[in-house]
Amino acid sequence: MAVLVIAEHDNASLNDATHKVVTAAAKFGGDVDVLVAGEGAGDVAAAAGKISGVRKVLHADGASVAKQVAEAMEALVVPLMDGYDAVFIPATTMGKNISPRIAAKLDVMQLSDITDVIDTDTFERPIYAGNAILTVKSSDAKKVITVRGTAFDAAGEDGSASVESVDAPAGPFKSEFVSEQMVKSDRPELAGAKRVVSGGRALGSKEEFDRLIVPLADKLEAAVGASRAAVDAGYAPNDYQVGQTGKIVAPELYVAIGISGAIQHLAGMKDSKIIVAINKDEEAPIFQVADYGLVADLFNAVPELTEAL
Amino acid sequence: MKVLVPVKRVIDYNVKVRVKPDQTGVDLANVKMSMNPFDEISVEEAVRMKEAGTATEVVIVSIGPQQAQETIRTALAMGGDRGILIKTDETVEPLAVAKLLAKVVEEEKPDLVLLGKQAIDDDSNQTGQMLAALLDWPQGTFAYKLEKDGDALTVTREVDGGLQTLKLSTPAIVTVDLRLNEPRYASLPNIMKAKKKPIDEKAPGDYGVDIAPRLSVVKVTEPPVREAGEKVEDVATLVSKLKAAGAI
Description:
heterodimer, A: alpha/beta, 7-stranded parallel sheet, 8 helices, 16 strands, B: 13 strands, about 25% helix
């Protein structure tokens, strides 16, 4: 049996989400290979070879897969699947974009966002924004799976797998990469951060979000997150959104500031190890999941907390 | 361009979901059902395209029980032109939905299929991408902004780390994210008008598509409950508790 894992990376460095998917793939069983598709991503391929338990790395290098556009990834991965029983893909925006395309071509019903592998046919995944947990059995011969990173520990890095080249698809394709605007930040990445400070609508403005949330995050060396309400109001960029349809996080410490705790937000953070909530409404649902709740005016409490750290 | 908008009837966004005691699923009896919120955004976008003169016709399609007709009516009240209901009481998985939609696309020949990025019941996030694969069409998922550019579409997508812009030749598939637009409420006159708009009724068999499920439910359970912790008096107490817990 063999499993293909698709690596998450930005051509320069390998994202930790890959290590977590390798853990899930190892639980499925068999040989685990990692596919690195990118342009000039040789360092990433070398890094993938160091992940514990990896048999070999397949490295596709070419402009067509530089941004992992869905059609090119489909053209690359589908033929490779002749040699594999399953493909495990991180449930990142990259993975969510490409995996159903691969599944449909293979005539397989995909399993999205799995949180556990029970056996080679049976998996666990959250539904209804995490309000129910589904154990589901697949009758498809091959499996196409996206993996929720927060549910698996990252595999170690004591491997020494060889890197093998595979051809990147030639194209042209019907979609074309035009540009990207990436938020530049020295902070830890939200999805994999050990600490997260999130702000909600109660902050009232982008200025207050930046003035209160950012220094606290700096002090804690934390990633910054936000509720959907705060993102919709323009206090924080889109990719800061924590919740059912945004980022799923499970840090060691999650600090929710001025967030009431709608179920859609809780779905994105309730697996955090320690949750702190600061909110002036003592009835706010966030307090039902918080380990430490402080009922206080955030405009006083947050600067005081930042100062005290 | 002609736009096809698939919509799904799901448990309402605000309803607290309850798992059935026999672990076979969640309780849907006497629960408020509504249009999947992401699908409202795709209907809104299609209607705006029509109002702006870029779309010529907006066709709404839903796959589900008889009551899915109400979901189609809602979309027609928002500004859709006509509807297609593919009626079935069976569970239709995303792969089978995509196969049915591919057949509808063959018949209707739209230039654009606009779908919600995921349904809030099974949270699969698959149908649009699967449909794109089956049709060999380009896809722009998680759209934040959508513009017509001659015969092509420019789609700005919400991705990890920021935004990515793609240019798609048409026909194309676009799935929408939360911030593409804010859906309107249908006005009473438009709700009345929607009652007269035509809805074609079909069955999966009419399209010759095998919708037999590939997945079977072993069980559905409640997630582990997280217990509320303690309320702390002030910031100093919070800091000392966090230190004691080794969190800072």
